[in-house]
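Students often ask why inverse folding is considered easier than folding. One informal answer: many sequences map to the same fold, so there is more than one right answer. In these notes we will look at a single instance of the problem. The structure comes first.
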């Protein structure tokens, strides 16, 4: 079982595919879920402690917008833990959390720099393309075993 980083990092579709092939998906949903259920956090709308911004500084300089640092405080550790990655290009904004261009650039750069096995696929626009996409991802995940 490999730990697979998924991009967009909250894609339920990719998460499901990774789990079906016996691997562990590394997603924002898992990290945020832990924060939401943490009894130490007394401001649920924010779901952060004073440690999260400090963690973000490991991945992005202080001059970088705070939103990027905040996102990277969650995404950075997932990339560090990853043994492989699935990256979906051209996904619509509703497909996952891909609304921050700077975070996206930094995320993809970190995955590339890590040098882990990675598959890049395009978001399917037809049913036939979706079948091809699933087969490509399935073959990639099987090759990791």
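Output (designed amino acids):
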């Amino acid at each position: 079982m490999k730990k697979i980083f998924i991009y967009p990092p909250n894609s339920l579709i990719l998460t499901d595919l990774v789990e079906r092939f016996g691997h562990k998906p590394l997603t924002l949903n898992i990290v945020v879920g832990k924060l939401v259920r943490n009894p130490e956090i007394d401001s649920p709308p924010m779901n952060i402690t004073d440690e999260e911004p400090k963690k973000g500084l490991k991945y992005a300089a202080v001059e970088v917008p705070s939103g990027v640092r905040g996102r990277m405080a969650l995404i950075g550790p997932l990339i560090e833990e990853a043994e492989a990655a699935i990256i979906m290009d051209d996904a619509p904004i509703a497909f996952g959390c891909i609304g921050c261009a700077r975070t996206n650039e930094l995320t993809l750069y970190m995955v590339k720099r890590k040098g882990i096995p990675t598959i890049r696929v395009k978001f399917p626009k037809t049913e036939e393309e979706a079948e091809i996409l699933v087969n490509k991802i399935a073959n990639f995940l099987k090759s990791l075993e």
